[in-house]
């Protein structure tokens, strides 16, 4: 394994990888800084570009967008109280309060340093832990895979939104959409309605761009909200003493974010909120949180960035995307011929380690680029939306077409866009639907294999040979219920 | 079902899901092909309808549950899309649908130029210079970047592709 890591380290030291990561970081910060435009949208639209680059170049490009976007979302959150990403909501509580006190530069600096620290520490944890976990996962058979996939869906259902029924409805919708096309077990056509184009199923990319990117743009258009607030970066830079004061909080939040990142379905928003509430509870002056406390910004940012690395663990070892961003990364991996799962380390271990090492380098680049470009990206908040929206649509359409060179994908993009905006208006979250769509086929396949292995003796099978899978099946609803109750508590 | 019930987008959405899932569950054997058989026995341990049946059945039940539980409170203004918003959304998606339908027949550059110009105007840009510059330059630049740098294909008219090739000395 160590040789694989060393080979991967050497592979990551490529000038084109670094240049592309820098481009990704810039693009991510740009998009993240634009209120109404999300990192997820940028990743979905630029995903097709990664298909035509080598894995060690294309996937770090997407990771660069991801990392840059998370911090980029903090910029409007701090400067104009408009979080660019869901994870930046917790940041805006104290970040905007600091701006009102004339300390916006300090807020942006602590957000950057906390982000980089949290991200780097969790990436190193990922590199150390991923191979032992992959070795464990290699022992998994279809019953264990089915149990873990079901557990992931339960956790996603428990943590995705305030209304459990709505979340499960969307998840079931995604599972059903995954059955359209050809049955993965028997090769029989299902729900194609005689249409040739549906025989290969619904393609993932138009769905991703359609439900994640298009509704965001459509919402801005429908609300006719083209106004932009002006933002100014004011005040002195962060001092070392102030950073040291926040260091304990940053470490705590990093640990929280790292733990949350390993569990599929939780994601950055949960991490940011939990990191913030933990910092507030541990503070000797909790009443200051929300009034302009640097530790509040540090806690949220460290936690939400610490999720980045560990989300790769279930993705790479089991092929389970932990959130919507890793769902997009899964699409990139598959298109590159890297099939996530335990066999990935046997077949392409060096490439995997190269990507993980590139993630660490991306953080170092991020620190430098972010620090120098904060004043520039602060101006981005004021760019005309009437120029950006048409360009985003053009990129979305171009990216969708290049995926399969099939014009039907463009119509699916529009259809999913309409679906996405209707779901948004009806207050349904589309993320569970996408998770259900991605996890449905492997789940059905594992289910069929499990039924075949059990040979009608389910009790004997699960009690005797596959007690691990049975334990996961029993514990999953309990864990899901605990998380659902825990996340309902106010911050 | 009262008029208040149908004012909520949520209820319309869930009712639609309920109708489709219930119909899908009832008529599933008409929507899914028969299992492959060998010597009178199915080749697979589960039939093609097993998984979808479970999903559609659960979806039907949950849609009914959501309609029951979510209608305990009155709708507020935030839950209803205004007519103006709906109209703008309709026009926006109409432009996108036209863009999608036209991209292959008339090529990426021409369809994108038209779409960018129309969208820019629709979302409120009134600067003629900006609209012309963005609509004329952006599609060409993206086309060249995609086809030359990334070596991917975008649909294009022969005349435009030949002109661009000559321009680049190809």
Instruction: Give the amount of beta strand of chain B, in percent.
Output: under 5%
Biggest interface and residues each: A-B, 64 and 73 residues
Give the biggest beta sheet of chain B.
2 strands, antiparallel
Share of helical residues of chain A: over 70%
Widest beta sheet: strand line-up of chain B:
1-2
Proportion of residues in extended strands of chain A: under 5%
Number of strands of chain A: 2
Specify the number of helices of chain A: 20
User: Ends of chain A: how far apart?
Assistant: 42 Å
SSE string of chain B, helices as H and strands as E: HHHEEHHHHH
State the domain count of chain A: 1
Structural class of chain A: mainly alpha
Overall geometric form of chain B: flat
Helical percent range of chain B? over 70%
- The SSE order of chain A reads HHHHHHHHEEHHHHHHHHHHHH
Word description of this protein:
The complex is a heterodimer of chains A (491) and B (170). Chain A is built from 20 helices and two strands. Chain A has helices spanning 2-12, 15-33, 39-51, 55-80, 89-100, 104-137, 142-159, 164-179, 204-223, 240-261, 267-282, 294-306, 312-318, 324-335, 343-380, 385-404, 408-425, 431-454, 458-465, 467-488, and strands at 181-182, 189-190. Chain A has a two-stranded antiparallel ribbon. The radius of gyration of chain A is 22 Å and the shape is globular. The model of chain A has no long low-confidence stretch (mean pLDDT 81). The mean pLDDT of chain B is 83. In chain B, 70% of the residues lie in helices and 2% in strands. Chain B has helices spanning 3-7, 9-26, 28-31, 50-70, 83-106, 108-122, 128-149, 158-167, and strands at residues 37-38, 41-42. Chain B is flat and about 65 Å long. In chain B, strand 1 (37-38) and strand 2 form a beta hairpin. Chain B has two domains: 3-79; 83-167, no CATH class. Chains A and B meet through helix 8, strand 2, helix 9, helix 16 and helix 17 of A and helix 2, helix 4, helix 5, helix 6 and helix 7 of B.
